[in-house]
Amino acid sequence: xxxxxxxxxxxxxxxxxxxxxxxxxxxxxxxxxxxxxxxxxxxxxxxxxxxxxxxxxxxxxxxxxxxxxxxxxxxxxxxxxxxxxxxxxxxxxxxxxxxxxxxxxxxxxxxxxxxxxxxxxxxxxxxxxxxxxxxxxxxxxxxxxxxxxxxxxxxxxxxxxxxx
Length: 164
Ligand code: FE
Ligand code: FE
Description:
It is a single chain. The chain is an all-alpha fold. It has helices spanning about 5-35, 40-65, 75-90, 95-125, 130-160. The protein has a single domain, classed as Ferritin, core subunit, four-helix bundle (Ferritin, Up-down Bundle), CATH 1.20.1260.10. The chain contains five helices and no strands. Helix 1 runs antiparallel to helix 4 (about 95-125) and helix 4 runs antiparallel to helix 5 (about 130-160). It is elongated and about 55 Å long. The mean pLDDT is about 95. One fe (iii) ion (FE) binds near residues 47, 51, 108 and 141.
């Protein structure tokens, strides 16, 4: 089926985000478990709970649109999470914390790009309730990214000091 309208592109990108969020819920508990810094662990645990809420928001968006959320795999997120898992296997201790923050910030930026776009489409299509829901998630991703930058300023120093 060809995607020849903004309406179809909108639904397609929402399905992509739905897949991305579901992939993230599988990765975050592993990242929390692997964290050395308790602050980083808490941040991953908090964002796991937020991510579950973001999936519920998307469920609501699909309900409003009368569309199904299934049918797409976000290959971009799959690649980002594969890289994250790879670097987690190659690192340890505080250096692993630094590497996980690096991977997680890539994920947050990817999500921010995706949500910013669909929020804008929702506004264009006059879907104000949906735009509002997507904006809430966009704000959470932005806050998470900022929080990670904050944690990195400490974690990176630890990782550097502990280097052999
Ligand atoms: Fe998310
Ligand atoms: Fe996120």
